[in-house]
Amino acid sequence: MTDKLTNAQIAWRAAQDIQDGAYVNLGIGFPEMVARFQPAGRQAIFHTENGILGFGEAPAAGEEDWDLINAGKKAVTIRPGTAFFHHADSFAMVRGGHLDVAILGAYQVAQSGDLANWSTGPKGVPAVGGAMDLVHGARRVAVITDHVTKDGRPKLVQACTLPLTGVACVTRVYTSLAVVDIEGGRFVLREKLAAMSFDDLQSLTGAPLHVEGAVTDLTVPEL
C-alpha cells in the first residue's frame, strides 16, 4: 500500500480546518494531538468534559500539576482566561449546543454519517465517555482515523457493524489516505494522497467514494 500519513500528520490536517476562536472538544487519545497544530494566528478554545475551558499546551516533563488534567487524565496548563466549572456544567455546554467542533477517533464510520467509536463488540472493553453527548451536541463532528484497521479492513463502511455512538452525526473524516466528506448519505472524496490512485483508494474503502468537482492532493508537512 502507498505510504500513509502518520497520526501526527492526520491531526495536523484536521487542525487546519478549525476556525479562530472556535470552541473545540478533542476526543481522548489520538484526537488530543490536534491541539499541537493550530495554524499561526489562530487560537481555538479547547473544552474538556471534566470541567476546563481554554486550557493550554501540555506542560514540560517534570512540570506537571496533576490537579490540572483533561478528560484523558493528561496534564494541561492554564492560559489567561481559562475557566473551571462543575462536571455537570461541562456537559450542559455540550448538550446545549455551545461547542463548535468535536474531533473524535473511530472504529467505523458509515456513509450515512453513523459513528462507532466506543466498543469493539462483546469482547471489547466499553469506553463511551462523553462521546454520545458530543456527537449530538457539537455543531460539527469530525473523525480522525487510519483508513483501515490493523488487519486491513475498511473503517469507512456502508453500515456500521459495531455498537453505535451516534446516528448521522459525522460530516468529515480525515484518514491516513484521504479527506472524505459525508453528504447526502454518501462518501464524497475531497483530498487523497497524490501517489494513490482513485481505484486503489476505493479498494480500501467499504462503500462507494463519490467525486464532486476537483479532488485535490492531500499535502501535509513532515512532522
Automatic annotation (TrEMBL):
Entry-linked InterPro entries: 3-oxoacid_CoA-transf_B, CoA_trans_fam_I, NagB/RpiA_transferase-like
One GO MF term: CoA-transferase activity
Keywords assigned by UniProt, alphabetized: Transferase
Top-level division of the source organism's lineage: Bacteria
Keyword Transferase: yes
Pfam families: CoA_trans
PANTHER family assigned: KETOACID-COENZYME A TRANSFERASE (PTHR13707), SUCCINYL-COA:3-KETOACID COENZYME A TRANSFERASE SUBUNIT B-RELATED (PTHR13707:SF57)
Family to which this protein belongs: Belongs to the 3-oxoacid CoA-transferase subunit B family.
Name recorded for this polypeptide: CoA transferase subunit B
